[in-house]
Amino acid sequence: MKKSISTLLAALMLTGALSGCGGSSSSDSSDSQASGNDSGVSGAITVISREDGSGTRGAFIELTGVEEKNDAGEKIDNTTADAEIANKTDVVLTSVAGNEKAIGYISLGALNDTVKAVKVDGAEATVDNVKAGTYKLSRPFNIATKGEPTGVAKDFINFILSKEGQAVVTDNKYIAVDDNAAAFTSDGSSGQIAVGGSSSVSPVMEKLIEAYKAVNPNASIDLQTSDSTSGMTGTMDGTFAIGMASRELKDDEAAQLTGTAIALDGIAVVVNPANTIDDLSMDQIKGIYVGDITDWGDLA
């Protein structure tokens, strides 16, 4: 009997020892996960950027410090050569939504539930935070004309800046530049004009055109979507009566064109919904986009 009890006790002690080792291993693993990558994903970051000429890219690289001046005072875009280039907002959304390791940036007004916007330096990407100035990634939506606008162009611009036009801006999740604008009365201008440029401004411009044509059916407006730089060059050469830019006008553009802000927009930094990272600093965002931070594990 004593031998049987001794054998049983030995077996129990061995089981406890093995269990203790297993518990220790589980705890170590848990501690390792807690101190490691907390993004919910691992591996190389897929960086999604916009194309050259994009106003969203221009504003983003300036605001994050990805663009810097060299010794000659020239602005240099230091976006990593490994970045995947998307030529439209919709392409950025699709790319990030389909890749758990991706990060991109889009107009705040274009944000939807296929992606997740992260906080930047603790501030959420919201209209209220852009208005308050606590969310730092924001830029104006500008239109530009060459010379004094006349006819349909003048009437349409007056509509955009009116109470009704600014209501269209806010209804589409952008920020009005004038909360106390006067009501609009069309002068009845007729004819056709072309409006062209930024793919970020284009969605709200489409809504503005629809609303304006309901007030003035005599007008015909052709909307052409490309990028901010093309919008400005097209306005300078007479292709467009009104150009669109999702950034400030450059010095050489401002010398030939008259720019007018029609809305304010935030730039949302977006990741895949599977990514549990909720907040990035401006320095971290810059590090990702210049290629200094290349793995999600480096952000723990």
Could you give the topology of this structure?
Layout: H1 2-35, E1 46-50, H2 55-64, E2 67-69, E3 75-77, E4 84-86, H3 89-97, E5 102-107, E6 116-117, E7 119-120, H4 127-132, E8 138-145, H5 151-160, H6 163-171, E9 175-176, E10 191-198, H7 202-215, E11 219-226, H8 228-236, E12 242-245, H9 251-254, E13 258-271, E14 279-280, H10 282-290
Parallel strand pairs: 1-4, 1-5, 7-14, 10-11, 10-12
Antiparallel strand pairs: 2-3, 5-13, 6-13, 8-12, 8-13, 9-13
Molecular structure report:
The chain has 300 residues and is α/β, with parallel strands linked by helices. The protein contains ten helices and 14 strands. The strands form three sheets. Strands 1, 4, 5, 6, 8, 9, 10, 11, 12 and 13 form a ten-stranded mixed sheet that branches. The chain starts with a helix and ends in a 10-residue tail after the last helix. The relative contact order is 0.20. Keywords: Lipoprotein, Palmitate, Phosphate transport, Signal, Transport. It is a lipid-anchor.
Q: What are the key terms here?
A:
alpha/beta, 2 domains, Phosphate_ABC_transporter, two-stranded antiparallel ribbon, D-Maltodextrin-Binding Protein, domain 2, 10 helices, Phosphate-binding protein PstS 2, ten-stranded mixed sheet, lipoprotein, 300 residues, 23% strand
In DSSP terms (H or I, runs of 4 or more residues), the helix count works out at 10
Helix content: 25-40%
Question: Within the CATH hierarchy, at the fold level, what is the topology of the largest domain?
Answer: D-Maltodextrin-Binding Protein, domain 2
- According to CATH, the homologous superfamily of the largest domain is Periplasmic binding protein-like II
Distance between the termini: 58 Å
Radius of gyration: 27 Å
Q: Kindly provide the name of the CATH class of the largest domain.
A: Alpha Beta
Shape: globular
Please, how many domains? 2
